[in-house]
Amino acid sequence: MNAPERLPAAPASVAGPASAEPHVMKTYARLPIALSHGKGCWLWDTEGKRYLDGLGGIAVNTLGHDHPKLVPALHDQITKLIHSSNYYLVPLQETLAAKLVELSGMTNVFFCNSGLEANEAALKIARKFGHDQGIDRPEIVVYEAAFHGRSIATLSATGNPKVQAGFGPLVEGFVRVPLNDSAAIEKVATTNPNVVAIFLEVIQGEGGIRPATVEYLQEVRRICDQHGWLLMLDEVQCGMGRTGKWFAHQWAGIRPDVMPLAKGLGSGVPIGAVVCGPRAAHVMGPGNHGTTFGGNPLAMRAGVETLRIMEEDGLLANAAAVGSFLHDAFVRELGSVAGVVEVRGHGLMIGIELDRPCAPLLTRAAEAGLMISVTAERVVRLLPALIITQDEAAQLVAILCPLIAAFLAEPVSTP
Q1: Of the residues 111, 147, 174, 330, which is catalytic?
Q2: Is 325 annotated as catalytic?
Q3: Which of 9, 100, 119, 237 is the most exposed place for a label (fewest CB within 10 A)?
Q4: DSSP string for residues in 266-297
């Protein structure tokens, strides 16, 4: 159901000019918009303007905003216990871990706070896995155009020189290959005896919504089994039902050894998880890894409730159906527009690649009442909440397609 045009005015504490941030470090090129509150797939800024949220907090807000089942559950948890310590048992950790094991068919889970932390833990697991086999300098296969985070280790695994610039020396121990090229993996197997793992996103998010093919994922699983390597699949952005299955790799009928999760697992509450299968489940022991905030009761309750609501409300089926509707609509409306290279993705993870950089569309869409993302310079990225309706998806198409067509009709600017 669509939200009303306006909700009650924002509290005075959040009102004011969006650009007034003199004490905040300038690490983001923000739009001059201050968001105040939301309902479902809709957001309002402090000036009362309404936006259709096609970004979902970058694949975070699985259940949208102010969900009627999630909010009371989080309120209940806040009144009980927000944080304790991993010195003690946290029963909700076992509840959430058991559910993730059930959904994935894997073995156990480590909880942390973010996708970066989950990926960092995966890299540590791979290195210790190698050391346990007597390999002093383990190597991990990573990918061109990949993005795994901004810590020094995950930045080193990332395949984007622009975000790496200025932070050298990077961490060693990574061997880089192109996506969907199994011959490149076979070559690495013959030339790099210290390889212990392959680490890839099932769908590259920051890299431009570029999926690994089903055939490639199956081949990589076979190669890892053949050589005794860990298959580590980064599902931070593409997991948690976004493609219409719980995890994107399930479309290929395979199972990884290590699977980092985050983003949509907590519907906006910071959370990360590393799910491990039998080969990796017992690599780490007491003292090998840890976290202060990870696995706190509030984050665990958010994860438990998110999964429960997703099941009760059939959100995987909704992601598949509405995602298919959006894909078909974009192909129909933009397929013949000069300058549109490709519409791709899976479920509610959609990229529209153009033949030129398209950052101005971020501002133009916001002005038209739509939140989107532009990634890899030329790809319009959509990651809406899994509760989005077909009617809301149709509104998204009606706003975005004319903006893209008008943008592409403009003369190409030269640097």
Answers
A1: 147
A2: no
A3: 9
A4: GTTS--EEEEE-TTTTTS--TTS---SSTT-H
